[in-house]
């Protein structure tokens, strides 16, 4: 490095400490990037890549740069692309520095640690998630949204549960131990790896003594147990890794992270990754958009923090009947009082994102406009509290009692900050008149000084008789008097020449110089004093961050309740009875999203009864497009809505609390991991059979369709039997299938019932009635659906012929199956190749010939007779 310039040596030394970040290296008014960072950043930011000399081998060094005062959008774009950005500032005054200016990294911006509003989605958390695996496949999971201060921790057993929590939190960045780098791909789940940044932390960070010390020091507790983390050995390690990472990247205090919320998954309904995706809880399967999801339907929140709270409620439905009823009482009261709902919405309409404002203020990254936004939000609280005064439900009363108007904070900001402050903090114009005596005096001097300059110009014009005389200012010479050369003979003796121009001369006078020093000194002092006063005000507000966080959380909760009530009132939802029974009974249930989006066809409601005694498994048959999948999903969504505290789309519902919802719906593959569609289907089915309990709800759609017909029917039949017969996992199950053979399960299994989606045939057309009725369907009407989809007419007609041949089982002359016979009635010659499968008559003879009738018991004989009957 001896042949490098001092500046490049300094750059490379700092860069070596941040090898995985793009280094924004402050040089004057620009952040410069060099070498590989410059090449990468120029491509992402679409800015010019240039070069300068000299590198270590004498070659030119690639570089690019962005203005420091407008760097925020460039940083946001890099972070959005998954990059980390290390901000390296000049930490000493270049005017007083001896040699090269001292520089150091003051902050590292990563995808999981973004606080700037323009880089965040208002109604979504931006989580940094930490995962660590301990002994016995026990996982610690912790996640933090630094923009709001929300910090949660839990522990789960097994890979599926761990990655289920990842799917729920949907983090932008994931922290893992360095030793986990190589094994990540073997435990990951599908597209959970997409669009995420993975950061690996040295293994020593997870040492138990170090992690517990981090937790104790940050939260000021004697033990992590004081935070509700009893028994959370791995959870504490995961949470502490986040605190360590904050120390490494934020280079300062993160005082707004005041609470670590420990939760246990048993407190909530468990929803795995597949279920969240299939039920389209927060985004649609096809486009990944909010519209068309359950969240899109229920979200009428007026605030960003309310939107995030609703997303959390949907992701973590309750299992506590008491807590569910508390929410229901509040929703019911608001749904029945349109005036109160409207008043709440009006009051909340002017409330900004208090959680993120609090975060930016605590991190000292807020501007004056953030403080004004906080003040305007706090002024909305007193009318809101007045509205809630007559509320009767316990939850609304508790919320009213917990919302703090923070009068003194609003008053401080109102007295100290102007109503419309500038964006830039270092140019003055922030602090209100009357807030600080010295500042007011300096402003008076500044205003008077400027008035003096105007009066002095008029005076000098009169004294000299030079009407073109001007008093002007620039940063190099300060104030000066400019006189054209044609008037130089008229200048007084006390004029002191400062500069000669082509057509004029510039002068100063002792009087002008005296006032210049007074005015300019005042203006410079004003800017410094305003910034100092702003920082004092911001620190005072930050000191009340805990109160503000509690108030923000309660306002968000109120916003969610009002949103649920608004939807319940408009969509005519009912309040479900949620209890500890095993009954799932729904009268005239509707799919909440389909009902709202499909305006061209009236939604047909349907009933359902599931329990663990007589109606445990319901086999649903019927044509494609008839509504089987819609019906099953609507049942799952109604259960989920009931347990998050919402009213539901039905005329009446009784929901025995469900501990988990499982879904196996649709076809998907994971080719990157060598898993076919059928393999993914079988893996998801296996997970259901391993984890389901009698308190679970299982939704199965078309099990076994990814393999041969015989294999598929066999697997589907065996899965249904297992769910029925195995006490450990005897879950309430909806099982949609086109294998009509499965309807025979109802004959041999007492808790299995058949139902189908009714259709009407008319003139070779099929009309979907969308009604679920008892009994099994005998046809799937696939050919009619194919015609609706636009299959050519000749394909449809040929399919009918083949279907007839299959159903009759007849053979043409020469032993050729009639399925091969065309319209002309000519069948191909019989192939000498033997069939892979024996025909029914051959199988029957073979079975009979193998029987030893003399040794059969009467019961065995009856069972065999039943078997032979089904073979005919």
Automatic annotation (TrEMBL):
SMART domains assigned: MUTSac, MUTSd
SUPFAM superfamilies: DNA repair protein MutS, domain I (SSF55271), DNA repair protein MutS, domain II (SSF53150), DNA repair protein MutS, domain III (SSF48334), P-loop containing nucleoside triphosphate hydrolases (SSF52540)
Ranges where the DNA mismatch repair proteins mutS family domain occurs: 696-712
InterPro entries documented for this protein: DNA_mismatch_repair_MutS, DNA_mismatch_repair_MutS-lik_N, DNA_mismatch_repair_MutS/MSH, DNA_mismatch_repair_MutS_C, DNA_mismatch_repair_MutS_clamp, DNA_mismatch_repair_MutS_core, DNA_mismatch_repair_MutS_N, DNA_mismatch_repair_MutS_sf
Record's keyword terms, sorted: ATP-binding, DNA damage, DNA repair, DNA-binding, Nucleotide-binding
PROSITE patterns per the UniProt record, alphabetical: DNA_MISMATCH_REPAIR_2
Binding locations of ATP: 622-629
Domain of life of the source: Bacteria
Protein name per UniProt: DNA mismatch repair protein MutS
Organism: Geobacter benzoatilyticus
